[in-house]
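Sequence, please.
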């Protein structure tokens, strides 16, 4: 019997199988829901905190039962200049307009022009209201005189026997309704009775004003001489420098300090202090140099030998003589306030062939 090497049988082990993991979803979902509930509770507690102390609110100022406390006055560095606005029951005249005439005492240095400007009136309105005193002449006034200042532009008229509203309105180019409705006239609109009228305001009334400086007529060229009436006139030669008609201002100022050109004031009053140099507005021949009684005071008139003449009034001194030839821009004297004048200025006139021309038409700007 042969011995055979027996190889022991090796029993092969089967490979171990890894068990499959199963996810348990139920606990996860339960914890998620629990977390959401907890978060909701926390947020709810934060919004409605039972441990929070309630703040005590102050009572309203106007709440019933509240106590008012006086506050200290506000200290402001600015003063209160406000003016209370009162009710105006008068609907005929705009608020702010004066409705009644007043009296004014003329002060040193006043002129009708400055007074009119102060009261926002036209100068002729003051002249018309004071004809008995001024005679339409504003240049001859004196400090201490009391004049009437009308409430508006127009004519402050002294009522006369036989006057009617229709006649007065027609005479002064006004409307009867405006006269009746003016408050200071005290006329009943439905039955205007004029029996007791002493003065009546005629709003926007107008009349011609008497010129207070009488124009001096002079003889136009006839032969070889021309003479201007007055102590300063002379027989001037017919020949001389011919003006250019390009007139210049007689003083450095180009603005007025008195009256403008008007039918009752045939020149312009140019601002100039006493002693201000006056020059010839154009070349020509002096046909008057001296005093004149018609209101101009010391004056000079120049004929420019082309139909034009210029006149310079109220001068304080004269530097040229009658008959002398002058060039444009030449010094002829100094400004002043002689004659019918209440303040220093240059009364300047321009004449053409014996008539008057508004100086603004020929003066260069």
């Amino acid at each position: 019997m042969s011995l055979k090497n027996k190889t022991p049988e090796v029993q092969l082990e089967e490979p171990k199988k890894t068990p499959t993991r199963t996810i348990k979803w139920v606990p996860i979902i339960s914890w998620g829901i629990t977390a959401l509930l907890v978060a909701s509770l926390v947020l709810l507690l934060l919004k409605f905190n039972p441990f929070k102390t309630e703040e005590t609110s102050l009572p309203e100022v106007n709440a019933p039962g509240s106590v008012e406390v006086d506050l200290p006055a506000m200290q402001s560095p600015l003063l209160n200049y406000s003016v209370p606005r009162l009710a105006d029951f008068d609907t005929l005249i705009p608020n702010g307009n004066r409705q009644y005439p007043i009296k004014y005492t003329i002060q040193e240095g006043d002129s009708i022009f400055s007074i009119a400007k102060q009261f926002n009136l036209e100068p002729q309105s003051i002249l018309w209201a004071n004809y008995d005193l001024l005679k339409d002449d504003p240049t001859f006034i004196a400090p201490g005189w009391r004049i009437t200042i009308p409430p508006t532009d127009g004519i402050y008229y002294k009522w006369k026997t036989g006057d009617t509203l229709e006649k007065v309105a027609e005479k002064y180019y006004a409307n009867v309704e405006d006269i009746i409705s003016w408050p200071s006239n005290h006329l009943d609109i439905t039955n205007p009775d004029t029996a007791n009228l002493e003065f009546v305001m005629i709003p926007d009334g107008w009349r011609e004003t008497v010129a207070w400086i009488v124009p001096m007529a002079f003889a136009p060229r006839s032969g070889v001489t021309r003479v201007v009436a007055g102590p300063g006139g002379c027989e001037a030669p017919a020949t001389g420098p011919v003006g250019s008609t390009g007139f210049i201002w007689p003083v450095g100022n180009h603005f007025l300090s008195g009256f403008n050109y008007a039918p009752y004031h045939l020149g312009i009053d140019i601002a100039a202090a006493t002693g201000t140099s006056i020059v010839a507005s154009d070349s020509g021949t002096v046909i008057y140099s001296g005093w004149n009684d018609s209101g101009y005071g010391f004056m000079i008139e120049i004929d420019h030998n082309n139909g034009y003449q210029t006149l310079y009034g109220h001068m304080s001194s004269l530097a040229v003589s009658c008959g002398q030839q002058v060039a444009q821009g030449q010094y002829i004297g100094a400004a002043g306030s002689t004659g019918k004048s209440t303040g220093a200025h240059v009364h300047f006139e321009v004449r053409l062939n014996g008539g008057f021309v508004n100086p603004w038409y020929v003066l260069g700007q």
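The domain at 102-203 is CATH 3.10.350.10 (Membrane-bound Lytic Murein Transglycosylase D; Chain A).
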